Amino acid sequence: MSRSEDLYTQAQISIPGGVNSPVRAFNGVGGTPIFFERAEGAYMFDADGKRYIDYVGSWGPMILGHNHPSVLEATIQAAQRGLSFGTPTEVEITMAEMIRKIVPSIEKVRMVNSGTEATMTAIRLARGYTGRDKILKFEGNYHGHADSLLVKAGSGALTLGVPNSPGIPEDFAKHTLTVNYNDIESVKQVFAEMGDQIACIIVEPVAGNMNCIPPVEGFLEGLRSICDEHGSVLIFDEVMTGFRVAPGGAQERYNVKPDLTTLGKVIGGGMPVGAFGGKKEVMDYIAPVGPVYQAGTLSGNPVAMAAGLAALQQLSQPGLYDQLYQRVDTLLNGLQERADRAGIPMTTNRAGSMFGFFFTEEPEVTTYAQATQCNMEHFKTFYHAMLEQGVYLAPSAFEGGFMSAAHSEEDIQQTLDAAEKAFAKLV
Ligand code: PMP
């Protein structure tokens, strides 16, 4: 028995499913979740001391690699000054100014503690601002687990096959309209019917919770013009893509400006942080200046702010993003080559330092339907073969992968060597 197996058995007694977030339970791939103890750079070390090259990066935050010295130092120093004050602090201004500089569509920003809080509040704000109840989202997009947003969601909700969770009153869910991702015609149709009742469109500008699916040309631009035409708020959920697919997120990469943006993951450098921000006119609808209520005991926490700020500062190093993109290219081109050679039908997607691979005959994956029709048996076998060889990928076919600045050419090469053996098992 490995120590992870022991710990998993023990964990299930006191913790539902043995985990504090469902996708960690390996439901998507079967087997025992690995319990980790320590992480450094591109590596994580499990409870038995085994080393893994990590492409999950705590589900996105660790873009600099684990335990980056500057982030660690800033966090320790802040902790020494006090863990929480519940008052305004100067570091919150520095953080807000930094965010505005990197993401220019954000004129004002409010810090929260998770991506879920950010999206939940952004839609409340859009509803309050427009005086409308309905919201439009896309099938397979995941925006956290707020009631209105857990309708046809991706990520763990998709892996578990319960996109509509019990516990959400139908009266809430009926206000959430869901259409196909990358299908602008379906959005136009819904708006033609009831555009004047729709408060907002919320979208993952690169979908990362049904594997990795970038927007097709014209999709984000189309959403922008539909929102303009109907007076609806356009929300880019950049919890995953922010500071990740480009320094200024997907809105920079695809050059489309939303009205509101939600952020998380990278922005906290590994600490629990989220944020939402955007047009001053909309943001001033939030309390205490405006009527829409939102609050948080630990929001803008000084230790979390210090960690996030240090991470964002490190990301401004020249050449850092180019290296990330190049490493993704090396990894995906190498994977494709090896899959082709082994005769395994597979295709890949990438957007900046986010990537995905799909076991499918389709030359290209751009839709939720295609993502869900991939060969899951191939994925599971490949997954466990990689895990065994010390490569940690997201334990679900519906999650993207993340490259970090700490991944070296050698790490990629080792990953590709492992993949070659893993593909051989699928033949
Ligand atoms: N939005 C997106 C796009 C996400 O990927 C996630 C989490 N994976 C969330 C929102 C929710 O963030 P959190 O888990 O921090 O609540």
TrEMBL record:
Pathway: Porphyrin-containing compound metabolism; protoporphyrin-IX biosynthesis; 5-aminolevulinate from L-glutamyl-tRNA(Glu): step 2/2. GO terms for cellular component: cytoplasm. PROSITE patterns: AA_TRANSFER_CLASS_3. Signal peptide: none annotated. Its EC number is 5.4.3.8. Coiled coil: none annotated. GO terms for biological process: protoporphyrinogen IX biosynthetic process. It is found in: Cytoplasm. The keyword Translocase does not apply. Pfam families: Aminotran_3. It comes from the Bacteria. Its main location: cytoplasm. It catalyses: (S)-4-amino-5-oxopentanoate = 5-aminolevulinate. Transmembrane segments: none annotated. Keywords: Cytoplasm, Isomerase, Porphyrin biosynthesis, Pyridoxal phosphate. InterPro entries: 4pyrrol_synth_GluAld_NH2Trfase (IPR004639), Aminotrans_3 (IPR005814), Aminotrans_3_PPA_site (IPR049704), PyrdxlP-dep_Trfase (IPR015424), PyrdxlP-dep_Trfase_major (IPR015421), PyrdxlP-dep_Trfase_small (IPR015422). GO terms for molecular function: glutamate-1-semialdehyde 2,1-aminomutase activity; pyridoxal phosphate binding; transaminase activity. Its cofactor is pyridoxal 5'-phosphate. The modification N6-(pyridoxal phosphate)lysine is found at residue 265. HAMAP family: HemL_aminotrans_3. Homodimer. Belongs to the class-III pyridoxal-phosphate-dependent aminotransferase family. HemL subfamily. This is Glutamate-1-semialdehyde 2,1-aminomutase. It comes from Idiomarina ramblicola.
